[in-house]
Write the C-alpha cells for this entry.
Amino acid sequence: MEKHVADSCPRCGEIFTCKVNNVLQCDCMKLVLTKAETEYIADITEWEYDGNCLCNKCLIELKGEVKS
C-alpha cells in the first residue's frame, strides 16, 4: 500500500501529496485551526468537495474566511 498519494485539490486543482496513511506527517497538520475554523472547513469540504482533502493553500484561504 502506498504511504503517500499524489492528489489534486478539488477546490483549486493544485497537485499535492496526501499522506492519508500517515496523517501526523501530512502537511495539513502544520495548520493550527480553531474549533470554529475546523467546523467551517469540514462543512464546506463535506458538501462541496465530497469530503476530499484540500491543499494547504485552500485550507489557509478558508481559514481566513472564518475571520472575515
The beta strands are 5-8, 15-18. DSSP finds two helices and two strands in the chain. The first strand starts at residue 5 and ends at 8.
